[in-house]
Amino acid sequence: MKIKLASGICAAFLAAATTLAHAANPATISDNTRYLAMGDSLTAGYGAMPATDGYAYLLYREGAYDTLSNTTFANAAMPGATSAQVLAFQVPLATGTGFHPDVITMTVGGNDLLAILEGADPQQVIVAYQGNLVSILYGLCTALPATRIYIGNLYSIQNFPVPTEPAIQAFNQVVAGVSAFMNVAGPCGGRVKVADVYAAFSGSQQGLLLINRNGADPFQVHPTNAGYRAMEKAFLDAR
Which terminus in the chain has less CB density within 10 A, N or C? Predict the structure, then answer.
């Protein structure tokens, strides 16, 4: 009786597994476009309500790189992550697992900038950021030779208690310069494109940043839902 019961359970399990395998089509995991989001709180959607209205989720949900039914999406971003932490922890995840992304979007540098605003030496921070970004792109492009990579630059911050524009311009020059270098002289071969988030936030920032709301924390520099929509458009325009 026990042997017959076990055989029946196995047969039922195999039948169910076969049914599920067929039900997964046509959006099978093996042939989906795989989209990986990396970086800091901006990629994580921090400040959006809900967080799944952040730019990376919007790009996925609205079929930026393939139809929704044919896209497998993963978000490896972590609020507070610096460029050194993205290099140390997120690049190995992107390159060392079986996910093999076809597309990567990334924001990185805002938390490095924060170190300057807290008193760190600007030159040392920017040089370290440049080195980390070179290593990030080198690691991704070398291990993932067909993957398209979109990296967002930093937006300006109006009404911040201390001046930020010189540092933001310096960081954005690093993003542009490193991306161009890795495309021409490095292993990226033109697969890295910069999403011009800075331009998307230029001019009036009314409604785009939490800091500009009445009574807001003067250090709350994350986007609102409208701001994340502006970021999404910058990434769309970079395709």
Answer: N
- Rounded Cα distance between 17 and 172, Å, is 50
Tell which residue, 162, 239, 130, 152, has the closest CA to residue 201: 152
Angle at which helix 165-184 crosses helix 110-117, to 10 degrees, equals 140
Number of H helices, E strands in the chain: 10, 5
User: SS3 for 179?
Assistant: helix
pLDDT tens digits, residue range 84-110?
Answer: 999 999 999 999 999 999 999 999 999
Mean pLDDT, to the nearest integer, of 57-62? Answer: 98
The encoded tokens of residue 225 equal: 């839902």
Closest by Cα among 95, 111, 144 to 44: 111
Burial of 70 (0-12, 13-18, 19+ CB in 10 A): middle
pLDDT band at 183 (very low <50, low <70, confident <90, very high): very high
Distance CA(229)–CA(226), nearest Å, equals: 5
Q: Which domains does the chain have, with CATH numbers?
A: 32-237 (3.40.50.1110)
Q: Could you tell me if 170 and 126 are in contact, meaning their C-beta atoms sit under 8 angstroms apart? A: yes
What are the residues whose beta carbons fall under 8 Å from the beta carbon of 81, sequence distance 6 or more? 39, 40, 41, 89, 90, 108, 111
| Backbone angles phi and psi of 19, in degrees to 5 | -65, -45
Question: Above 90 in pLDDT, residue 202?
Answer: yes
Concatenated DSSP letters of 80-110? T--HHHIIIIIHHHHHHSS---SEEEEE--H
